[in-house]
Structure formats: structure tokens, C-alpha cells
Amino acid sequence: MGVINETARDNQAPVARGAAIRRTDMRARGEPALWVLGGALALGIAMIAGFLALVAWNGVMTFIPKPIDVVTEIDGTVTAGEPFREELFRPTAEALAALTPDWQQRIAAADGYASRTLYRTGNFDIYGEDFRWIPDFNVTKRERPANFLFVERLEWGPFVGSIKSVTIDGMERPINSLDDPGFVAAHRASRERWKQANAIEKDDIGAINHQLEAARLELRGVQLNSGRDSAEYRQAQERLEAAAAVQRANYDKLAAQVEELRRLNDGNTVTFVAVGGEEKTEEMAHLVRFYPANALSLGGKLSVYFSRWGEFLGDEPREANTEGGVLPAIFGTAAMTLLMVIAVAPFGVITALYLREYAKQGRLVSIVRISVNNLAGVPSIVYGVFGLGFFAYALGGSIDALFYPERLPNPTFGTGGLLWSALTLALLTVPVVIVATEEALAAVPRSMREGSIACGASKWQTIRSIVLPRAMPGIMTGIILAMARGAGEVAPLMLVGVVKLAPELPVDGLFPFVHLERSFMHLGFHIYDVGFQSRNAEAGKPMVFVTTMLLISLIFVMNVVAIVIRNRLRRKFVGSQF
Amino acid sequence: MNMDIATSAREDTVYHVKRGGAGEVLDIDNLSLWYGQAQALHNVTMPMEKGLVTALIGPSGCGKSTLLRCINRMNDLVDGLSITGSIKLHGEDIYARDADVIALRKRMGMVFQKPNPFPMSIFQNVVYPLKVDGVRNKAVLEETCERALRSAALWNEVKDRLDQSALGLSGGQQQRLCIARAVAADPEVLLMDEPCSALDPIATAKIEDLISELTGHYTIIIVTHNMQQAARVSDNTAFMYLGRLIEYGDTEVVFQTPKSGKTQDYVTGRFG
Q1: A272: number of CA atoms within 13 Å, CB side?
Q2: Whose CA is closest to A132, among A195, A85, A98, A202?
Q3: Homologous superfamily of the B3-107+187-267 domain (CATH)
Q4: Exposure letters A97-119 (e unless 16+ CB within 10 A, then b)
Q5: Residue B129: cis peptide before it, omega within 30 degrees of 0
Q6: What is the mean predicted confidence (pLDDT) over A459-488?
Q7: Using 50, 70 and 90 to split pLDDT, how confident is the model at A123?
Q8: What is the DSSP string of B176-189?
Q9: In chain B, whose CA is at the least distance from the CA of A455?
Q10: Of the ranges A3-17, A147-161, A494-508, B186-200, which one carries the lowest mean pLDDT score?
Q11: Which of A112, A339, A479, A504 has the most Cβ atoms closer than 10 angstroms to its Cβ?
């Protein structure tokens, strides 16, 4: 045996030694897994970063003023417009046959593809189109004349052309340059008067209408309470009619003011001429902004850029939301999200407190917990349907019947609105808060609870002064997640209160100042509306990016604020044990 | 419970309790305890006098912490616990049906194994027992805070930063803060559950000095794994083994001439 063993060892020795220095089996090594994990992370980060970069790039570039090309085609057509984008396309056989041999060769060399440019021609009122594709092979001449203006106006989209004449106070004036002080002052005065007239119509006349409506409702209330034939009704009627007469006198006065402002504005006009020679006279008051696109200095470009941003952030939308600003949508989104947090935070925290601290841990609690977690997986549109049915129709309907009978059949709370949207989203996000709060409560060290109880504190005192503060950072994490989820949600909101255009903000100067029943605008819905519901989809596309960027920034800002609060709490309450 | 059990040897406990305190405070009588089906304490009978320090020693799992936690009913937090026998504080049964647990715990201070300061300021930590009792008078709170911190030998170190977070203190300071918190409400009994096990030797020495100083004011019951510590700080020592009280008596006797063979084996390091 010994001999055989010796021999065997001798024979196998080189093999055995080789085996000893053989590299570790791949399956026993960690590196491949590491590469997979790292790769997955890198891919994820790349996708997120790419998405954000795409949104940010398009968002930042949208408002930069572009030059205006005047393009002459082979058939003599002249087009003026902003080059919007370029793409490759496959020209039809007839189009190819009509081309010069030189162009035919070039297209054949490019596998039958030719390039074309989309021009934003504007002048929808004259041409009936906003954009026009022009194939490069049709172009005979491309110029950038300095006198061409890009004019943003209140109606019909932008106008591209040059100024023919200017009328100030009904008299035609020669204008040498756009900076002519008389012209600039007249334009500014016209815009001011236009804004003033709008403000009077919206605020002052709005307030009168509001009061007239309130008077009507009061009368209706008296009628519902005491009947049409009662003395109270007649008294109320007389009193309210007297008040209404005063209001109507006020209204007439204000209407006359508006009329006067409009009349003054009628005298200030600019006559433009488009590239094809068509003339168009516009009131100065309707010109939001105009600039010589091809003769702009850097400062001029920047001024246009920031003035567009200012309008976007601080004004109301116009032109079916594709132009103007998104202030009501920003306001609506922020207000709705805040309301949602106010609703979801106490509700979720209280639920989790009971589940974790008081409920007897058993089958029932497990079922509740599983159900809560499953709620997070219900499609959000289902919450919208529920919110519409339960909050708006059932709850809101009852509120209307109880508190606003005089307004019926017009619903007050019995339809979608800010409050119902916030509550619907609160319902949607409450599982997040419950789960996070439960985790946070479970993470409070047992020793702290015991310390408090040993001091003679009751369970509630312990929870209030020790457990909750200590769990607060974790609870904040849950609220942050809920906020991010809620702020980006659109589908359920379309059912419970978000509209394309909300004429009134949920907060204004009319009693009771905060109107939770009003429908509102939302950035998420705005994106959908501008991108997919507007007539002018091509013009809406950049706005989609800008609005997306804005929504992401808004959520980002809200998250940062919440995270800063959380970190302060964490420093205060968690700290290090040793 | 009468003090004569101290001399009348019961079947499985050896008693030779050192007297000298100011009357009986706590009387554990025939206490048995079960966690579900498992019995953790077997018929423990143990009287304690006011102003004396009693050390509970014994190997891990012998029931000394369980016994300590019975005294202020911290074990109530555990599910499936059942108890027979009684613990009397000044003759009142703390396990009586109408006993007020919260009021009871206010009469007892407790210091835990690991320092467990609350996530609040040093001041708020110390006056917490008064705060939960509804005391709002600022002068009373401040006076109590100073007195408690002085008796925990911490006042000089923290008097300038009472409003800073207690979590910023060192481990030893935190434990002394916990002692200050435990004595703030002027309890009758101070329960200490291995108060030095998470501390370094210097901090341990400070806590031991503190215990010696507190002797006389408070009735102290201290659970410890450290037999030198038990020998240094206590008047009486109780040796427990497998849920039974083996020997309870004068610390000197327990450590030098134990009357029970098991105690002898344990204190000489033969097991445990």
C-alpha cells in the first residue's frame, strides 16, 4: 500500500501542485457579481442622468431666441421662419426626378436620404400653418435679413416679418429704429393700459360679480328658509336690490374705465409686413415682445431669454396653454402637494402608531399591514375614480346639501377640487407614510422606551416625548417619499379637480380667501395638455420640456426642504450613542 | 414578611442578612415567575432594609435582572409573563390588583446596563421624571436638576451646557446622567442593572464612588457581573443560580466564608 501510495503521489505530484496554484474557481470569486452590481448601478445612473440632461438641455434652450432664415425655393416661393429642427427623409420618386443630376447623385450617395428643415413660419392668421418643412434640395437662397422681427402677440401665435409703419395716438409716425423712444414709450403705455384693463375686469369687476352672486345666494337662502311669500324674503329682496343697484353703478363706472383704456389703445398700432408682402396691423397692446432676430446682440438675446422665463414663471397661460406662463399650474401643484402632506402626515403617522405601539400583534394586524402595503400597488387611476365617487360626489354632495343648499344645483364641494385632489393623493400615498413610520418606530431603541417608563412615564407620555421625536427623521423620510410620489401623479387628478385652464387661483382676495373647492391647474397635467392636447403640437413640444424641468425642480426643491428639516431633526434627536 | 427568616434557614436559601438599615423597605416574598412555560424565578424570598446596598450576583441567565425588573414592574412590558408571590414596598403589595404601576415606578429609580439618555437636552433629561409627573415650575425643575446632577457627581462637568443635547456626552457621563435622572424624583429605591458593564475602568470607578456616596440616602439594589464591584459597594449580597436564591447575606461573609457550596464555587471562580 505504502509503495503504491508513494508511486501515486510521485505521479500525481505535478498535477497536485498545479491544482494548488490554480486560480480560485470563478464561482467562488466575488468580482463577477461585483461587476454585475456595479454595472446595474451605472446603467441606472446613466439612464436617470441622461433623462435629466435631456429635459434640462431642452428646457434651458427653449427660450433662447433663434435667428430667422428667409429661404427662397426653386419655384420662387419665399419663406421666413425660425429653423426649428432638421431631419433626414426619403424624397418621393417624382420629387427626385425633378431634381438636377447633381442633387440626384448626392441623394443617391446618401442611400436615398435627403435632409429637410422645419421652419417655424408663424403668421398662422395669414398662411394657415405654423410650421413648414423645406427640403434642402429646393433651397436656392438662404438669407438672414436684419430687419426681420420675431413678434410674440396675444393671438394667432408668433408673427414673422418686418415693420411697415407705426401709428401712435392715431397718427402715423416714421420709425427709424426699434429703440425709438416714442415708439418704446407708446408700446409700454399700451401694454400697461392693457394690463390695467385686464386687472379691472378680473379683480374689480370680478369682486362685483362675486358680491352680486353672494347677494343672489343670500336671497335664495332666505327663500329656502322662509319661503317666497314671507316678509323676510321681501325685506331681503329690497335690501339686496338696493345693494345690487349700487354694485351695478360701480360696474358701469368700471366698465367705462375699461372702455376708455381700450379706446386709447386703439390708436397705437403697428403694421407689419410678412415675407410674402401680406400686411397685418396689430394693436401695440397685443404685442408681448418683438425683437430683430438676426440683429440681436448678446445682451439683447439674454434680455429676451430672461424676459421669456419671467413670463413663463410669473404669468398666466395663453394660446391654449402653448404660450405665456404657468404660474397657476405652479401654484396649484405646490398648494395641492402641501395640502396632501398636511392630510397624509398625521393620518399615516397615527395609523402607524396604533399599528405598531398599541394594537395586539396578531393575525388581524398582519392582515391590515399586508393590505396597507398592497394599497401601494393599486393603479392610481383607481384612486381617482374612488376620489370622484367618494370625496366629490358622496362627501362633497352631502356638504353641499348641508351647507350650500342655496347654490344648488351648481355644485360647490360636490365636484372635483383642490381639497378632494389633495385627499385623493393623500390616500394614494398613505401606505408609504405608514410603512416608513412603522419602520422608524420599530427602530427606536428599546432601552429608551424602558428608560422613560422606568421614570414613571405612561405609555402615551413615552411615545409623545421619546419615541416620536426619535422616530421623526424616519417619519420625515416617509413623508418625503410620499410627497415626491404625490407631486408627480397626474392620472387620478384628472378626475378629481385638475383642469386645463383655471380662471381663478385657489387663494385670492375674496372671502374666505382660500377656496379649497376650486378646480386648479397642475404642472403634470399641463405637460400632458400642452404636449398632446393642443392644436399646435410642434410649438407645444419645447414647452413640454420646460414644464417638465419646472415640475422636477419644484419636487426637487420641496424634497430638499424636507431633507434639510429631517437632517436637523436627526442631529437633534438621534445623534451618536457614544 | 418578618425579619426572622434571616436567621431561620429555609430549605434552599441560606440567609445571614446584615442589618443596620432604617427599617424594612422592600420585601420580596416567595416570588416565582414564568416566561410562558419557562420558570425563571423559583420562590425567591428577600427582605431589604432602607439605606443599604444589595448586590445581586450570579451567572448569566440566573434571573437577577428578571428579579430586579420585577421590583418596578418593568416586566409588565413582556408578553406572556405570570407571577406568583408578592413584592411589598412599605407593606403595600405592588402586584395588588389596584396597584398604580406608574405611581410605583415614580417611587423607584432605575439605571440600565447601557446608558440610555433621551434625545433631548441634559436639563430636560434630568427633570424628565418630574415633567411626566406634571411639574412645570421652573424654579423647582432647576433646583432639582442641580441637586440630581450634584448627587450624580456630574454637575461640575455639565453645568455650563445644560441646554445641549445629552447625546453629546461621553459614555460615562451619560451613565451618570442616567443616575441623576433616576434620583431626580427622589425615589425610595434605586435599581441598577449592571450600570458599569458598558463603561471603561475610570468611568466605572466614578460610578462606584457615586454608589458609595448614595448609600444611606437610597436603598440600592445593583445587579453586577463584577464580583469585586459587588464586594466593594454592597452591604448585602444575594447569590442566585438557575432562578433560585442560593445565599443572601452580609457581603463580607458571602465573599469570604460563604455558607453555601454553590456560592463558594461561584465566588472562587470555579464556574459561572
Answers
A1: 28
A2: A85
A3: P-loop containing nucleotide triphosphate hydrolases (3.40.50.300)
A4: eebeeebeeebeeeeeebebbbb
A5: no
A6: 88
A7: confident
A8: HHHHHHHHHT--SE
A9: B129
A10: A3-17
A11: A479
Over the stretch B45-86, which tens digit does the pLDDT of each residue have? 888 888 889 999 988 888 888 999 899 888 887 888 888 888
- ipTM more than 0.90? no
Domain boundaries defined on chain B: 3-107+187-267, 116-185
CA atoms of A402 and A388, how far apart (whole Å): 19
Which residue of B104, B167, B173 to mutate against A (max A Cβ within 10 Å)? B167
H or E element, residue A271 = strand A269-273
C-alpha cell belonging to residue B267:
465566588
| 3-state class (DSSP) for residue A172 | strand
pLDDT digits (tens, 9 = 90+) for B169-181: 888 889 889 988 9
Cβ pair B181:A445 closer than 8 A: no
d(CA A524, CA A262) in angstroms, rounded, equals 36
Q: Which pTM does this prediction carry?
A: 0.78
- Alpha-carbon Rg for chain B, nearest whole angstrom, is 18
- Distance in angstroms (rounded) separating the CA atoms of residues A35 and A300: 51
Smallest Cβ distance to B102: which of A456, A466, A575? A456
Question: Grid coordinates standing for B20?
Answer: 443596620
- Architecture of the domain made up of A327-573: Orthogonal Bundle (1.10)
Q: Report H helices in A110-201.
A: 124-127, 181-199
Question: Is B182 close to A454, i.e. CB distance below 8 A?
Answer: yes
- Domains of chain A, by residue range, sit at 65-164+273-296, 171-266, 327-573
Q: In chain B, which residues have their Cβ closer than 8 Å to the Cβ of A572?
A: 119, 165
